[in-house]
Input
Amino acid sequence: MAPKKSNSKKLTASDMRQAVMKYISEHSSGTFNYKQVAYAINADTPAAHRSVAMLLAGMAFDGDLIETSPGKYKAPARSNVTTGVFVRRSNGKNSVITDEDGESIFVAERNSMHALNGDKVRVIVAARRRGVEPEAEVMEIIEPKEQTFIGTLKVEKQYAFLQTDSKFLATDILIPKNRLKGGVTGDKAIVRITSWPDDAKNPIGDIIDILGKTGENTTEMHAILAEFGLPYRYPKGVEDAAAKIDAGITDDVVASRVDMRDVTTFTIDPTDAKDFDDALSFRELPNGHYEVGVHIADVTYYVQPDTILDKEARSRATSVYLVDRVVPMLPEHLSNGICSLRPDEDKLTFSCIFEMDAAAKVYSSRIARTVTRSNRRFTYDEAQNIIETGKGDYAKEVLTLDAMAKILRRERFENGSVEFDRAEVRFEIDETGHPIRTYFKESKDANKLIEEFMLLANKTVAAFIGKPQGHKKAKAFVYRVHDMPDPGKLTDLSKIARAFGYKVKESGSAREVNRSINRMLAEVKGKGEENFLSTLAIRSMAKAIYTTQNIGHYGLGFDFYTHFTSPIRRYPDMMVHRLLDRYMADGRSVNVAKLEDQCKHSSEMEQLASNAERASIKYKQVEYMADHLGETFDGVISGVTEWGLYVELNENLCEGLVPVRDLADDYYDFDEKNYCLIGRRNNVRYRLGDDVKVRVARTSLERKQLDFVLVDDRGRRPGEDEMGKTVSARQALSKGGKQKRSKEKTRSHRK
Output
């Protein structure tokens, strides 16, 4: 047998440790000594032998190995070697979330192997010691996660680097000069990390794309999309494929569908809408009832499965709505053109058609592929004017549908639907994208008219598949489900509501709980705590998702619910259309596992799109408030943390932070149980929902960060416990509340 070729010179200290740990994980059932380990990893020089021996002894001292007898070791219990997802933080508080039980375990930077956020890793967990938090060390990066970073380029004579404000990376990324792709200092760029040498402080990366100059509106909006891994442009092949689609409707196609072009039909959408994916039709029937049609753009007629267009739509899963633009799921030739239900154009639609009476009772319904022609495009404001004045185009139809919608809405709430009607802030943008004014988006009767008939269509479609006739088994389908609230969050909501004088049930049937929430939301209308309590109620709810496993929709109070009404902007709606078409033709049930994977992807992309939308709003809030530095506003404490108070301004709902370091009159402790900060000396309490006056102190567009200072941080009422009894800070914090000390040094009170 040929002797092993020496490899010891190639082993750095880090390489050796990694190799040793790999050997340990593979030989967890037996004992070993340093010679066996050294031979296995090709460490075959006397110096390398000594290094291995010292490494094993050190690991035994740290509790990562067990020394069974002098010089002999064995791996700890298998549970001490585990896999998980690495979580990197720019503040150095790295951790791993274990696959085994979801536990978060601290990982020091020196033990991270430069793993990046989201990497799949194998770690060894140090032996647990009494009173000491567990700590892990990365042994191997099993599956690196593809990820990018966004920041501003700085190009020097000899080198270039990307300055990033990522919360997942504390260092700049070095960029070789030959990989700049024409980028210059001040450009915002997307960079992929290509390597991170063990002995290097900074990773090395390649530029993927140059977004434009930092600070320019389009650049920053594209940066937000890129931050969440969302596309900001279409591949040329997709655009070309869309452009080739013919909008013409042949006689054969019309003959295969229900022709409803002679029925009064109209759309109602926002003023700036360009894609109209739903329309309502209305006509009286001979028996005195009404036929109401909910007509949805038949996108899947044009976008066939597994084509380049379909693959792009499936990947995106949803349109993304930023403050100043829409990034459509489908190219504009389709979304704003061929598929859009524009007035005076024949369009292919998928429809839910109801026979109803004036009391909104549904006598029958049918689902059919149709041909429709919109007679009128209403904006919400135009439709609202008809509802309020009784005059205008198709006034009879609009007024009748409005009356029916109000009945449907009332019945829905009586049956347990939760009424969330929180004010939403909008920005008026100038030609450069700069916000110049804020205003509140108000949901009026015209909005609610459309909402109710879309809800009716969605639940009808879901029940059509989910409740098959006879004893047939329901076929695989896409449901929009919403689970019951987390009991702990519901308890917290009830406790906080009680502090404001409102009652929310913590237990009972879904209908009872939801009715109590609705009652609280109605009572709080127009009061200072309205936005705070309605936001808290929303946060207490679970997130709605797409799945093949129907559990009903808790928030709406529906046993069956899906998304059928927006296929232009949501891929799950396209999935529903295809399944409907298949099952109405007596097709077999599709593969559940594959369908569930598509549902999961759509839910994840929906969340990313929502995060991007919030980030764009936050960016515009900071940009808007930068014009108001030094000005004073009234607000309400919307969040309490160990690092400070979040305050939402009454005037425009912009939210900023009052850092705890700026509460200079005292040293404040965080009472997690009672959602407040309590001063140690003066017993002053800052509580969730308190009215405050703040001054705009600092803005950072790079970090999307807005800082306030309290105008008056004295004279606050003393702390109270959850029963309203006045107590000292020590007493309040000793009653089960979680006490956390700020890392900031105590400052003397400002004079």
Observations:
- The chain is about 30% helix and 25% strand.
- The domain at 629-741 is CATH 2.40.50.140 (OB fold (Dihydrolipoamide Acetyltransferase, E2P)).
- The radius of gyration is 31 Å.
- The longest helix spans residues 592-625.
